Each structure stands twice: as structure tokens, then as C-alpha cells.
Amino acid sequence: MATYRANVGNVEMISLTDGQGEGKATDVFPASDMAVWRSEYPDLLDGEMIHPRFGVLAIRSSSKLVIVDTGLNGPDGRLLTDMAEKGVDRNAVDLVVTTHLHPDHVGWNLSDGRPTFPNARYLVPRHDWDHWTQPDVLPDAPHVTESVIPLEEARVLDLIDSEYDVTPELKTVPTPGHTPGHISISVSSKRERAFVLGDVAHTPAQAHYTDWSPVFDTDPDVARSTRHRVFDELEASGALVASGHFPDAGYGHLVRRNGRRVWQGI
Fold first, then answer.
1. The pTM is what?
2. Cβ(10)–Cβ(190) under 8 Å?
3. What are 46's strand-pairing partners?
4. Pairing between strand 165-167 and 170-174?
5. CA atoms of 183 and 201, how far apart (whole Å)
6. pLDDT confidence of 2, banded at 50, 70, 90?
7. 5-265 maps to which CATH number?
8. d(CA 169, CA 153)
């Protein structure tokens, strides 16, 4: 069974899960082909369905406890239970970093109308905030009204630039396309590196089929360009990758095998 803990120098990462989603593979990825899924990725299929994980990451860095994204908080949401089982105290969280403002990344921002992490500052990419709070966008984004704007009203929300030092070991990186202000997180400690992917990708199949864009991408062309750039860099560097929508704990590497780039989970 894949471990949920990973260490990068002095940084500890703890993979958390808030359940999983469901969708027909070719509906989620319109450019894909069911024959390809069946022949090359049968382990990712349940009939014709795929079940992306709703991943959350806890990171201990420079005496801070950081949560990256907060899951969906859906009918089978189990983030708080998973945190308790893995020794992550929500009262001890210092910072919550949001990679982007989609429902499955902000769902546990609040519990019973109050911040789920009562002693934390919530960091939100300024460019995503500017997009989702536009008068012509906000009415179609009830999750922002319900799970994000109340943080501003509670005065615990900070808007951050695309490049921001969360701690001396964690730095946000602009990775737009999935949403306009989407960010990832670069981890660097004691000459070891990791990369928290966010929604740059949603399935290990995109390691090879990098042009596949899910229907959730706000700008598929920009998302595709970002994915190619990021994957090329991660393959070349050999950095550990943490991906919230990938199976198991979501840890792995992008490696070259028989002329194809593949996801090698750990």
C-alpha cells in the first residue's frame, strides 16, 4: 500500500483524501478514446468511469503546518476524519493555500459557518479571486459565495501573487489554464525538490497523452501549454510530484519508459 507520508529534506508532506469523484472517461476528456483507456489504463477504469481522488495535502515546513486545498466536502467527504487518523490537528494549521477556486478545492474552508481551521490564514491567488468574483461570473459560482467570500468577511483571507513565498521552503508557481489564476507549489529543502501539482493534470494518463484537457479547464489551450511545460521540467529534474487527483497517495515521478513519458507512482 502506498505511503501517505513523504519527506523532502526537512519538509514533511502528508497526503489526505476527501473521497473521490466520478465521470465517464471520454466525457471528462473529450479528446480521449475509450479503446485507449481500456488497452493502456485498465486500472484507472471502473467500466467506462474514472474516479479522480479529491486530494488534500498537509505540509510541515519551517515550523508551520500548511494545508493545500480543502477538498469538496461532498456526501462521502471524509477529510476531517482522515486528518484525525493521520495525526493532523486542524487547530494547529497555520496556513491554508488554495491552488484555485474550484468546488473540490474549497469545500472544507468552512464548517458550520465558521473557518474549519480556526487559527489559520487562508491564502488565495489574487488572479483567481479577481476572476471568480466578477459580477458576471459570481452568480454561477455558488461555491465561491458559500465557501470563499465568508473568509474575507471573517478577515482570515489573504490574496497572494502568483509567485509567493509561503515559507522559506515553499513557493507558489503560476500554472494558469485550468483556471486563470491557478498556482502550484514548488518545494525545496536540503537540495531535494518536490512539486505540488494542483490541477495541472487530473489523471496519470496525461503523462503520455499530455494534450488531453479535461472539460473543467477554463482555457484548454493555455492549460495544455502549461501542462507540457511543467511535465517537461518535472521529467528532466526528477522531482517528486504530489498530485491530488491521482490514485493512492498521489506521489510519484514522471519518467521515460520505452520512448513514452509515464507516471511512476510510489
1. 0.95
2. yes
3. 49
4. antiparallel
5. 12
6. low
7. 3.60.15.10
8. 30
